[in-house]
Amino acid sequence: QVQLVESGGGLVQAGGSLRLSCAASGLTFSNYEMAWFRQAPGKEREFVATITWNGDNTDHADSVKGRFTISRDNTKNTVYLQMNSLKPEDTAVYYCAADLAVGPFPKRREQHYDYWGQGTQVTVSS
To answer: Which of 98, 99, 63 is closest to 83 using CA atoms?
Structure first.
């Protein structure tokens, strides 16, 4: 059974940093592209960042470019999201997702992703 378990969320002041982790099990992690999405209250879930199976390529949403960085460690079956210079508008539940690495990169639509974590709350206070 595939499991994606996010951790690292919490409450932080504007300008602060957090690092999210997503530990995967039940799949061959290096076969999957990984992504982070987020959903703010009253809004649709939106793409944040994605990374290729080997970490050679990444793609970030314009809203987080230069502040957030996605990375992965295939030896630990874990994908990370380093979030710096956080803003109140970054407040959301953050989800990691996995997609079998076939087809063109990047994939920004959630429909492409096969497996999802349960989410971790990030709250940025002003």
So the answer is: 63
